[in-house]
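#onboarding

Welcome to the new folks! Below is a worked example of what a typical request in this channel looks like: someone posts a single protein sequence, and someone else replies with the predicted structure as tokens. Don't worry about understanding the tokens yet, we'll cover that in week two.

Example request:
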Amino acid sequence: MTALHRLMVATCFWAVGVGGAFAAVLDVPIVADDIAGVVTSAKGPEAGVWVIAETTDLPTRFVKIVVTDDEGRYVVPDLPKAKYKLWVRGYGLVDSMPVEAALGTRVDLPATIAPDAKAAAEIYPANYWYALLHPPAASEFPGTGHDGNGISPKMKTQQDWLSVMKEDCTPCHQIGDKSTRELANNSVEGWAQRLLLAREPGDPTLGTRGKEFSANMQNAMAKFGRDRGLNMFADWSQRIAKGEIPPDPPPRPSGVERNLVISEWDWANSHFVHDVTVSDKRNPNVDAGGLVYGEDNISHNMVFLDPKTAKISESHVADDDKGVPFAVHTPTEDAKGRVWIAITEFGEGEDPAFCADGSLSKFAAYYPNPRKLGRHVALYDPKTKQTTMIPVCFGNLHLKFTSDKDDTLYFSGDANVMGWIKTKVWDETHDAAKSQGWCPMVLDTNGDGKITPDRNQWNPPINPLVVTGEQGQQAKEDAKSAAAANPDFDPKKDTRVSGFLYGMSVQPNSNISWYAKFTPYVPSGLIRLDPGSNPPETCKTEYYEPPRLPDGTYAAYNARAVDVDSHGVAWVDFGSGDLGKFDRSKCKVLNGPTATGQHCPEGWTIYRSPGPNITGTKSGADWHYLMYVDQFDVLGLGRDVPITPGTMSDSLLALMPGSEKWVVMRVPYPMGFYSRGMDERIDDPKAGWKGRGLWTDYAEVPLWHIEGGEGTLGKAVKFQLRPDPLAH
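Example response:
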């Protein structure tokens, strides 16, 4: 719009007032598959508010969401043929009444100003409410137990307490949404009773695991010091019931955030979907126009969406030979469009003999890893619709491909080793022993440039739960004083590390893999594996913790996931509400007796994600799960943009490289958008923004916490970024 046009519009506004008369003077482009118009309230045009179009005319319920421009104009583009209802949601407003709309028409929408701050706050994301919690002050730590301050003695610092608030209380669902902040009984007893509630076996979402989830919540409360934890949550909900609201509203979308187009499809028939895949991360052109694959790791199903037809379906993953379901977890596609699936086991099972027998596997000779968990990896072939189970000797949760000649697929999910499958070797031989391998996590602490092959000569981990945190505190001391402080640490030996590996990634164009070692929660850290030319003998591990601050706390904690950009820089999202950038090329020390975690603070840059901090702390109120680096600029923000899910803020959060500017991609409806991981695909490279998309899903376990309540389904979600808010 030219300056003269803007002047004419402004003159018209003052002449005719607000509402429909003003909207009529604004030109809005429309094509046959659009719905477009202007949003106005009593204050005039409403910029940066969401227009939501939804229909049930397709095979599954479909929603498309856009944002208004500076003048309140909107275009909902590229809609499938159906009848739609449109309405408006925005910060500072209350939801408008839906109106019916047909394709190719202009529909000007009225917006209603919220009558007060409390009414406006109803649609604030969960983290704005979660921030109102009052955890114990930093001065109350370490805890002195039931007969002291009620805080568990295991809580050494406030960060330990906050890590349990995040890592043990939010992995299944948001806290701060309407379902969690509003209780019929806000007392301590009411909260205690709430934790005991469990859905009966046969529930369509939780299956047989309702009591397990209840037990998890009770165990988490015990970690705080049960009464002290219950009092914190009761005080929080009581204050909200009395009218306390977040002090500052979230900002409306601005700038490039207004170019976002969000599409949602109901799917999975009341099942929980943990994660999705749509293409090969190494080449987002793979499987163009294909299905979206999701994994339900409670009822053990694969779920499918055809975005071209909006048809959904599902398939149960095969049970083992004892009838126990394989618990599918996270999928990824290979270059052939096949889906590889990490399998987690919750019961006992038999491991292959080659996991422990060194005569059958050189990896077992180097470091046997038997667990008797019946561990497997699944391979689903869409052409045959058959699933093949491959037994493995390592735990597996998340998985990524290298670009080597063997199309090696690496896995996280173990506490002692990093494992892989050479998928081309599997295709050629179908021999599980020949196609897989693993390396223990061993640091070169004697500084000789290699790992001593005799595992009996390694320093053992100090403690499986604490691992190298204590060693890391010795990083600035020489080897002699480090050994004196820790008699089990011999600086002449290499050192084994243990700790659960959660998210992982592979460095592009290499066979270097990176892992988020997320136990212990404080400080957690990064594991880097270089398998060398002849693993396991050539395997070398490095470990890096976020910097320890002068007051003994850490710059970030709760490392959850890692992804690596095309320059080899690792990006780590932390449950503390931070995003970490780790550039190994800046490190002055890579091995030796001090290389146990705290030896490269110069490699770290820590960014606080947007949103409020938890009251009385330095911790952000958001919590992050599986981050993703957009190496190929599929979304449109640029190459190598790191994106982390704001599980507590209904959003995906992108950090623009070279700056501290965040792009908040909010999903306003239905509230409760909780994303774990994401994937991207180019369906048509000639179609511009319309041929590209970033995919994720609503991955909150209790689907009834999502806006809409009981009966609400999970959703597959596609993010697209057009060049401006009115683009078709």
